[in-house]
Amino acid sequence: MKRLFFTLSLLLCVLVVAQAQVGVMRTSSYGAIKKEKKPKKERPQRTYEWTNTILANYALSLKGPSHNIGLTYARCKLAGFYTSAMVGTEWNFATVEGAPDDYFLTNKTSHPRISVTAGPMVRLVIPLYIYAGIGYAYRPTNYQTIDNQWVNARYASPVHGGNAEGGLMGNIFGFTLQAGYSIIFDGHSLLVHELKFGVGYTF
Fold first, then answer.
1. Is 92 exposed, middle or buried (0-12, 13-18, 19+ CB in 10 A)?
2. What are phi and psi of 190, to 5 degrees?
3. Percent helix, strand and coil across the chain, each to the nearest 5
């Protein structure tokens, strides 16, 4: 009886020690697996900085036609603004009064022009922007007479009106290019359509 009791006691001690060893192994294994987990990589956040752009412009007025030059300044981050000023290359103002029907005219016309526009712009992707603006335009139509005078066609085209435009700007090979479309409105519902181009630099 004593021998049986001793054998059972010895067997119980062996089981207790074995269970304790299994618990230690599990704990150490869990800790090892837990230590081997790599921290999640954080995605780098893209940061945008303000950019300043200056462009030299050329605009072709399709009614006339006439040629115009100017400058555009733009400042943008994800969104920003631009402003543009244009002048015409023709500066023949009216030198006589009256209507064109009162004179013998040649086929030559002149379109002096000054305009200023401004508006918002938005970055579509990193190198490409879209812009739109409104402003004021001065663009009369003058006719040349046979004695080399100029008469203004005020009844057909007022001196001043509104100006609206829109287009794209993009950075390509270190340069900034611009392509846009512009409309000049006047009081007689006449429209002057223009194609506008620009080249410049962004810094």
1. middle
2. -95, 140
3. 20, 50, 30
Q: Under a CB-based contact definition with an 8 Å cutoff, are residues 113 and 167 in contact? A: no
- Residue 27, pLDDT score: 47
Distance CA 187, CA 141 (A): 14
Q: Is the dihedral of CA 163, 164, 167, 169 positive or negative?
A: positive
**158 within 8 A of 187, measured Cβ to Cβ:** yes
Residue with tokens 């004695």: 147
**Average pLDDT per 10 consecutive residues for the chain, totaling 203 residues:** 60 58 49 59 71 96 91 95 96 86 89 94 92 94 91 69 94 92 77 94 90
Q: What is residue 28's predicted lDDT score, i.e. its pLDDT?
A: 47
* Tokens at 75, concatenated: 């400042």
- The edge-to-edge listing of strands for the beta sheet with 150-152 is 105-110, 142-145, 150-152
What is the sign of the dihedral through the CA atoms of 157, 162, 166 and 172? positive
d(CA 87, CA 139) in angstroms, rounded, equals: 9
Q: Are the CB atoms for 141 and 157 separated by under 8 Å? A: yes
Residue bearing tokens 């006339």: 64
